[in-house]
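Quick one from the shared queue. A colleague (R.T.) flagged UPF0225 protein JCM14722_24860 as missing a structural entry in our internal table.

Convert sequence to structure tokens.
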Amino acid sequence: MSNDCPCGSGLEAAKCCRQYLSGQADAPTAEALMRSRYSAYVFKEIDYLHDTLAPEAREGHDEKSVREWAETAEWLGLEIHDTWAGQPGDEAGIVEFSATYAVDGETMTHRERSEFRSEDGKWLYVDGQMVSGPPIRKERKIGRNEPCPCGSGKKFKKCCGR
């Protein structure tokens, strides 16, 4: 069995999502939380899925259904399409992703645009909307060699694009 993290980061699971699932550390970004929630499905860490929900999202949480989905699906991969904000110090962020899985031999893809919120430095899943088709870009993509929009005078790749 591979030691690679199922979230697709290319890192070992112990140095990636396992540290969040075990409670050794909190996910530092909305994307890291998204990746760790996917890994929680793969590793069947159902409590983590509940614990990383925002309070208002816990009201509709059906642990039995979540457990059944995690246990019956063969998790095939995660692709992050885009992120908006969700960095350390941000209050909110959005991550658009696709999770591919198989149930009874039928391969399916769940594509979602998820909303996250940071409370006391801890990222929480708020809500998500199913998405079809390519990701919708809300802003013009900033080129690596363009001036950074923060006003530092540096190129984007040497400033906020790191």
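Strands lie at 74-85, 92-103, 106-119, 122-130.
The first strand starts at residue 74 and ends at 85.
Added to the table.
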